Amino acid sequence: MGIVSEDKKIELELPACEEYLKYRVLIVVNGLYLQIDPVSGAEPFLENGRTMVPLRALADAFGFEVGWEPNEQKITLTKEAKSIVLQIGKPEMLVDGEKVQLEEAVPLIKKGMTFLPVRQLAELLGIQVEWDGDIRMATFTSKK
């Protein structure tokens, strides 16, 4: 199957519905589905049982400002008075200057895009997190 984007034809290999449902992950933030272009390769996925979300989608959904230092592959997320620093492939993050171990998954680059394990980041911001394994959906709700 192919689609046309900006006058270029892009070939897609689409899995059968049953196969796709085995690995797709839905993300809901404050009652709204997180929309991610499937052609971009930036779809959320599970890594060692942890939901991995593209950095840009995560920043937009949670209101983070993002800093990126390519030489160190270091990501800085800031929101209000909270500062979170992560590094690609590293199993810890700095939260307001204090080390916190990541659980089961580390920031990574896949298909040229940065993905972050989202649960701990959400919880650090006081966001309620729920996982429905039957339909593979992560729901994030800001506490008011």
UniProtKB/TrEMBL annotation:
Pfam families: Cu_amine_oxidN1. Residues 41-136 form the Copper amine oxidase-like N-terminal domain. It comes from the Bacteria. Coiled coil: none annotated. This is Copper amine oxidase N-terminal domain-containing protein. It comes from Paenibacillus hodogayensis.
